[in-house]
Structures are given as C-alpha cells and as structure tokens.
C-alpha cells in the first residue's frame, strides 16, 4: 500500500509517544519525523521500535502529508501555521484551535458528532480528553431535547496522571500520588468547561455544566460520572445512545458501569446510563470511560487523520 | 489511671483491627477480649503488640464495661442484645441500628451533630463511613436553611478498598483493582442513601440526595465531592462551617481542596467549600475527606465510647 | 486460512483468560471451547469479544486439535490423559508434567532451549514463569562452561500478583498488597527450584541454584536478578547470549537493565548482563524480565502449540 | 521539661519533612528553624502543624544545640562546618562524612553497632538507608566469625521511591513508576557499597559485598534479601541476632519473613534468617526490612541526636 507520510511535533510527551506507536503500527501511515525539542538527538523505544527525536526546526514539514501537533497549549498555534504553510494537513492536539479557546475555532474533531464537517478539512482541533468522554456521553440527550431546559449537568470525573503530561512536577511524583486522591480546578474553573459548554450549546441545548475533575493514582484512563436532569423519565435508559450511535465502531454501550480496565489501550468510549432512584426530579446517571491517551488524545487524532486523508476511519486503531 | 474494660466482637476485619490498635494505645481503655469467629485461636500483630482472637461465644461480655460490635450488617443486632443483657454498653459499627435501617434506631453516634443525645446512652449506632463525611459536610448548610428547598444534593464519592472489608473477593484482589476505577451502586441504590436521607431530614431539610460511590485503587480514605444548590450565593463560602464547628477537635476547615493524604490515620474530617463559577443557579461545591477506618469507623467508635463512658471525648484519638 | 480447533481447560484464571485472548486473535487458531468449572455458565469479555465458559465435563475434547490445560498443579494430569485419549495434542501449563515434578516428564516446552524435542511431540510441559526467565538467562553461560563448577547461582526474583492466580485470598487483596513487598518460599523451598535445577543439570552444568522469590505490588511482570560466579571474566558480557540467541524472535538483549514496562503484554524475555565491580571472584549480574502471563505462561503455551501443530512459531504472538 | 533547641537544614525533602515531624512530636526537642533553600518563605503542614521554611543563610545556627543537615551529598560538608563553628552539635544525613566517602569520616551513627563511639561526639555521620538495613542484618554474623572467609555476601535490595528524594525527575513520576520495577546501579556500582564494605571490614570481616538495588512502586520501605556463605550450618538460625541485639529497642527478630508493612512509620529494623535448603555450601538467607525515612534516615538521626544530647536514646521515636 502507498503510505501517507506523517510527522509529529511534540513526540516525547505522553500523547506524542502514543502517537508514535499508533503511526508505527498503522498500515497506511509512515512516520516522516518525530520532533521533540528537549529530547532532540535522543532515541526512545516505542512499540518495539526505535524512534529518533529531531529538533522541531529540523523537521521536514514539507515532506509530510499530515502533521500532528502535540504541543503545550499556547505553543501549538504558530506550528500549525508553519505546517499549513508547508502544505501539510494538521491535527492539533492542543486547546489552541478549539471552541471555547480560539476566537475562530477549527473544525472540532469529534467524529461521532462532527463527522460531516471534517471530510474536507485541512486543520482539525482534536478535542480534550474530558470533553471527548463527556460530550459523547451527553450529546444523545442534548440533541433529542431530553434534558430539562436551563438545568445544570453535573460531572465528577477522574483521570489518571498521564492526563497531566510527562513534564516533571513534584506533586506528580510517585511518592506523592500513590494512595492519594484529590479534586482540582474546583469551582468549575477547568479549561475544559468552556470547551464543553461551547460544543453543548452548539448542539442547541440550554444547559449549564458543572465540572469537577479529580486526580487518580493510575497511569491512564478517565471515568466521568454525569448526572442529567430529564424532562421526563426514560423507559429504556440506553435508548438515546443506541439510536445515536448504532453503528459507531468506537462507542460501546453497556448495561453495567464501565471501568477503566474496559477501555485502556483501546480507541473507544464506553457508556452506561442508569435512572436515579429515590429523587423527585427524573434524573439519569450516565457513566463514560475512555483511555485519555487513546480515544482521549492520540487515538482520536489518528481517527481524525484518517478522515482528513480519506483513509477508512477505523484503520490502525485498537478497538 | 483506672481503666475501663472494653471488648471487640469482629476484631479481625479492617474496622476491628483498627479498633484493636486504638484500644491498645488508649490511656483509659483496656482490651478485655478480641473475638473473631473465623480466626479464633489465631494471633495477629496490631500496634506492635500481639492480639489473640477468641471465639465470640467465649468472649466475657459480662466483664466488659463496653463492647464494640464490628460485625456484618444483619449479624450485629443479636450480639448487641447479648452484650446489653450482660450489662455492657455498646457501640455498634454495623448498619443494624442506624436510621434508615432499623425500625427503632439507636442514638446516632455522630457527636459533632448529635452529642446531646449520646451522653446518657447505653447503645449507640456508629455511622457509616460515607454518611460521616457527607453529613458533617452538609449539615451546616441544612440547619441554616441555606439549601434550595426541594433541591437534590449530589454526591460523587470515592473510597479506598478497605471500605469493602477484608473478606476475600475476586474483584478486590490486587490484580483486579490496581490501575482501575469504577462506580458501584449506581442509580442511588447504596444502603447509605437511606441513612443519610433520614438524618438529613431529621435536621429539618427538604432535600433529596443523589449518591454515586466509586472504588479507588488505594487502601484507605474517602473523598466526597458534593454539590449543593443554594437559596443565595454565600459571601464567605466557609462561614457556615466555621460557625457550626468552631471548636470541634476532629473537624478541619481548609481553603484548599482536602486530599486523602491530609486525613489518613487521623480521626478527622477535612472540609473545603467553593462557589461554582459559570452556572446560573448559585451552587456550592463542598469537599470532605476522612479516613474510612478512623473517623469513618473505628476512631469515631472510640469517640462515641469515650462519650458513653464519661471519658474526655478526644482521648486516645489521633487528631 | 483453515484454522486449527483448540480448547482451553481452566479458562477463567489469569493464564486461561490470557490464553483466550491470544487464541481469539490468532490467525490460525479457532476457540473450540473455554471450560471453567467454578464459572460454568458465565460469560466474560476477553479481547473485545464475549467468551462463554462451559463445564469441563461438557468440553468437546474430541473436537479439538489441541487442548491447553491451565489447571491447578495436581489437577491437570488426569485431564491431560483425557484430552490425549480423545485424540488431542496437549500443552499443559501446570507443573504436573515438568522435570522436577513428574517421574516421567513430558518434553519441556522452552523452545529457545528445547526446540528439537518439540516438533513431533503430542504433549508438552509448558515451563513455569520463573524458570522461563531464569533458564533462558543462564543457559548460554551453562552450556558454554563459563560458570565456576560447583558454584551457587543466586536468584532474587520478583513477580506481580497475577503469578499467584485469581482465586481469592485475603493476603492478595488490594488493601494488603499495595505499598507492601515481601519475600516468600524463603530458604530455597519454592517448587520452581527443582524444575530449574533439573533443567540446568540436564544442560551438563554442575551448579546449585539458590532462589528467593518476592511479591511485587504490580499486576504482571517478573524481574529476575541473577548472580553467576564465572571461571574467568568476560571481555564482552553479552557475547554468550548473542551467540546463543542470535535470531530468536522472542529474546531481546539489552545493555540497559530491563524493566517490567519493557516486556508486559509481549511474548519476550529481555536480558542484560553486567560485570560485578569490586569483588574478588569474577561474577556476572544477569537481569531477565518477562510478562509472567505471556512469555511466562500463555504466550509460551501458544508458541508451543504453534510448534506442535506445525504453524510458524511466532504466529499470533505479540513481540 | 527543658527542651533542646534543634534546627534542620534541608527541611523540605523527604528526610527533612520526616525530621520536622519527629522533632515537633519529640518531648525534649524544640524546632529552632527549618531551612529549605528552594522553598524559602513557604509553609507546609507537617504532623498537623504548620512549618515555615527559612533560607539557610537566615537560619540561626548559633541558637541551636544541635543541627540536622539533610542536604544533598557534596553540599552538606560546608554546612556541617558552619554549624560546628556556631557551636552546634551536628547529625549529618548526607554521605559526606561517612566511611567510604570521607577521607576522615565522622563517627558512624549506627547506635546498635557503634554506640560507644557516639556518646561524646560532636558530629555524627548518619548511615545510609540501605547500609542501616544491611549492616544491622549481617554484623552479628561478621563479628562472630561465622562467615566463610573471603566469601561474597550478596544483597538484592528494593526500596520505595522516597529513597530517591523529592526533586522532580521524569523517571520518578507516578505514570512511569506504577506497575514497573527495575534494578539500578547494577554491577556493584552504588555509592553504598563503599560505605558498607568499609564498615564491614572495620568489624574485622574479610568479605566482599555484591549489592543490587531495585526501585519499588511503593512510597517508602526497604527490604534487603541477603545471602551469606557460612563456615558451618547454624543449629538455630536466629541465635546470632538474639545474642547480639537482645535488649535493643529498635531491632525486631522474626521467624517469618518481614515485610514493608511491618516496619513503615516505625524506627525499627526487622530481621529474619533462614537456612538455604538444597545447596552444597551452608548458606543463610537473611531478610531485613525498615522504613527508609525513619530507621533509614530521620528516625535514626533523632536516635543519634538523643545520644549526642544525653537524652534517653528511644525518646520521641515510634517503635
């Protein structure tokens, strides 16, 4: 098969490393370069093969059909522009081009919701890890008008430490995280609130989101526990998702609560829904689990790349 | 000092083991017996000393001033009756005598809320681990009429595995729990919902509770993330707790979110409160952390025992 | 491709579950049955597919070209006989047919050492997890006569908890294993000592083995730290392994010490060797890491099955 | 009680933090200052109290009866000199003054072996964490002439991550350490080899040490697995330790292998000894466990401080 040439900027972080692995195993992609500023000149083993990191300035952007930018928020936008100028399509994993951050956001690469807008796109904003889980979990309720107007959808979510990146920080050292658990960005102040609210409202829903993330002592995985006030009880709690996602290869519905173990190292989100007993207002408890580095970052980025390059969407992705 | 003689029924489980340690280090208590049916005849090291487990039928109930019953739910009530008949006061750690479970509940041993009812009591129902955290966290709002009437208070809480006890179960083996995280009793079905709702309403509050517990890959500790719709915003989010708990030795208020590490091995609950930004209805995010085996079980049981025996309430407790 | 039909007895344990996954993804094998006595009638998700467990007595042994017996030590031998009587080839993962346990051991399925004896075999004894790591690590020294005659080869090895199986035991619960580490079978009493000594001596080496295993708070993986007194220093410490294993697909040599992370979920053993400084007798420190459920159990079992069935040896195995 | 005034240089690292807690709870010590260069001006909660970090240059060395220097190796010696010049006694936790590192080592503060040399001392070199465990474990054999002359004593030891300090490093992040295990300083190259060999030979023993440390995915604790070739088998394997340490408050002997759980947060080393079966040369397997931050660092430092100040040696230490 003729392979597309793809490059990775920011290849040594958690998402970048995962991207390297997915690209190396992808039947239709070839790795043009893996750039990593701080580790330029070093080598790393990924997926049983050696990857050599080049300096970003040495990356042959013009030789790439597509570039993944897995750079810190704020640092990505200029590199997206350089890659575009060199003629490459771009999947940007930072927040720089997302709704809620960018003044003119790029098409939002959450294929199960936004696929029609992605086919011809040249730049895609890859969603955040929490928004991927939460938006895929609530969209079927939002678009069907099942949510009480003006209601607050509440989300308590927990993420493994890889969500915080690989840059050394004292509070993320093993000795500080093991046997601990904490909330952060308490009071609805996380960057992802704006991203999720913007997308939720673009679906026509008049809702507020109240989001509290937590740090788990695990390496990878996100579980979002979501409560949704309904206009009326649902006879079959999973019906909206079944209707919305019938044939989606990367969405799994479950009658049992999903766990991290169900989803790690796979490009899926797994969703269950449960009526809340003993409360006056009809309320649904929705659970969504995904691997923050796969469906929440690198896997979804490859899914978007497949769409941009006209490859079969599921190709090269572990489902 | 003349010591009170206390016995423990169910001494080999997590709560029982913790009780043994607290009693052995307590300046005013002497361990009369430690009974454990399945491990009768065995010895265990606790707090640097050896404890010998006797069969429950061999326990000298009549020689004890007070008996702790740390038995499975359903199995405790008959032993409470036997201990009472033998003349001992009882602190029962099971759900058998708690509001929400018992038809005629015993006084509820949450001293910071119910101290006046405990002084003369002969039997006390020691609260569940989640209810201790959650009720102490929301009571100051409830009793001050600060909660929107008819509202749903939502709780997403996470507990270490010791909350599930020491009886071997495949799903609690290390290999199954490490790197995983899951919700359980989803849909507001946990036993503690009835306990918490009964106590919350006894405080005069017209609220629903929606509670989703989760299993954490840590040994001990609970963090409850609670959202409370308010009648009006609070100028000083921590003021209700400061007023309610000013001098309490086992309640800590914090402007930073509490973590498990702040509270493990200590008989405290640590609470913070944060106004939620970006939502239309005034809402408070309240966080409460405690050690499920100490303030959530054995420590609180000793606190109750101190009250029943007329000892200084904080004696022998790690604050 | 025409597929071979294979069955699994003992499919619900850790090794059995791993076998199910490998068989389901194997291009030349089809799963005839997955038998599990205690979980008969239940279903489990493995490798993204559902597996239904049948009772062992209902397993169609006669419909299988090959049967894997992943049963407890002592329980396997009769089932090996039944499978043989039904005409199936057998790869037995228990100790029942191994050297050191069986009076008439079956051919020992450690292909990198014993491949010539396996091609025509109808029953193979799949090695233990520790012996796989340790024998592959020391064999190149033994067969080259590089080890001091009469010397004691010392091994301190550490294993994740899946090595102890999935049957619930109090001491393997998460709350008991997390943040702990312990030696077991201290004093050279582990069952694997006899297995390793028998094989080591069959290679013509006059050595003793002194083996101390430890339990690690991880799910999977073994690291063996081995010291070998040499007849003379080696100019190039890795040379014996390079010579012995040049083209082996499942053996990796490394100048850096291998870690669990290098090998989990892969059918490899990774080996490094280092001269010991500052000691009078020339001594080599050899490190070997593998995944106890893959190269240490199910992966190696499939490698052996491939040999018995005349399939390419590496087929279906994650390297 | 009149309290001695003590200061801590390097108070914000793991050992320094532990020292702060021990000093704050010590009945005969008062904390004069806690200096921490990088965190000067910050506050931290330790042992339920707030500690304010000052800059080292602002520390009132002249106001301290004793100073603990918990500084990086190489940085400690000048501060020891400044504290001495200011009239303070010093317990130095770095390697700078230890045998094997220093040309003129200070008295070695391993009280159970070197107590007579410490009473009048003004500076003490606090031993390393591994040497404390290993030397206390082998000394009774060495001084009794029970070890085969010229033999190699082999040690495979494993330590929790706090042994590596709190300075952020990518390879010590939670996501890199969880579910992993690795050897380091392989080939007998760890700094502690020189320290242990120097002390072992000072006890008159003609032995080599071969030491391989490993990094455990736990926060704290060390387990050393030691094999010792003997001149002759021992009828009672624990007898040498019983004779040597009969009344020592901080040494525990055990017939069962010690585990990390037995020793964490306590100022003890716990030791067991087991004859090796099935090897020609009589060999003992000795296991020793301690908490690297307590008996392996801060606890032992306080034990030494008690000796230097003429306080009862066990005062303020959790046994």
Largest protein-protein interface:
C-D, 51 and 52 residues
- Seen as an oligomer or otherwise, the chain set is homotetramer
Give the overall shape of chain A, derived from the CA principal axes. Answer: globular
Helical segment count of chain A = 9
Low-confidence region ranges of chain A: none
Spatial strand arrangement across the major sheet of chain A: 3-4-2-1-5-6-7
Give the tally of β-strands of chain A: 14
Largest sheet of chain A: 7 strands, mixed
Q: Mind telling me the C-alpha Rg of chain A?
A: 19 Å
- What fraction of the residues of chain A are assigned to beta strands by DSSP? 15-25%
Helix content of chain A: 25-40%
Classification by helices and strands of chain A? alpha/beta
Query: Would you tell me the overall average pLDDT of chain A?
Result: 96
Head-to-tail CA distance between termini of chain A: 22 Å
Element string of chain A (H = helix, E = strand): EHEEEEHEHEHEHEHEEHEHEEH
């Amino acid at each position: 098969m003729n392979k597309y040439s793809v490059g990775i900027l920011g290849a040594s972080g958690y998402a970048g490393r995962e991207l390297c692995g997915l690209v190396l195993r992808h039947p239709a992609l070839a790795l043009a370069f893996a750039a990593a500023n701080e580790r330029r000149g070093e080598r790393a083993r990924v997926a049983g093969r050696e990857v050599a990191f080049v300096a970003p300035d040495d990356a042959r952007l013009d030789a790439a059909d597509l570039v993944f930018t897995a750079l810190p928020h704020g640092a990505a936008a200029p590199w997206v522009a350089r890659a575009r100028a060199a003629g490459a399509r771009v999947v940007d994993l930072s927040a720089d081009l997302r709704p809620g951050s960018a003044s003119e956001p790029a098409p939002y690469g959450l294929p199960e919701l936004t696929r029609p807008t992605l086919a011809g796109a040249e730049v895609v904003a890859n969603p955040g890890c929490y928004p991927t889980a939460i938006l895929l979990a609530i969209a079927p309720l939002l678009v069907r008008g099942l949510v009480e107007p003006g209601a607050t959808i509440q989300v308590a979510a927990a993420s493994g430490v890889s969500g915080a990146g690989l840059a050394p920080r004292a509070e993320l050292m093993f000795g500080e995280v093991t046997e601990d658990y904490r909330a952060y960005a308490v009071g609805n102040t996380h960057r992802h609130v704006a991203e999720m609210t913007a997308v939720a409202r673009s679906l026509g829903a008049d809702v507020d989101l109240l989001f509290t993330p937590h740090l788990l002592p695990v390496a990878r995985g996100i579980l979002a526990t979501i409560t949704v006030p309904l206009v009326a009880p649902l006879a079959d709690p999973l019906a909206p998702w079944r209707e919305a996602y019938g044939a989606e290869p990367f969405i799994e519905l479950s009658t049992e609560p999903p766990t991290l173990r169900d989803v790690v190292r796979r490009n899926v989100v797994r969703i269950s829904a449960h009526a809340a007993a003993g409360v006056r207002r009809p309320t649904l408890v929705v659970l969504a689990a995904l691997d923050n580095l796969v469906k929440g970052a690198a896997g979804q980025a490859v899914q978007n790349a497949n769409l941009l390059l006209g490859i079969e969407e599921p190709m090269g992705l572990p489902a």
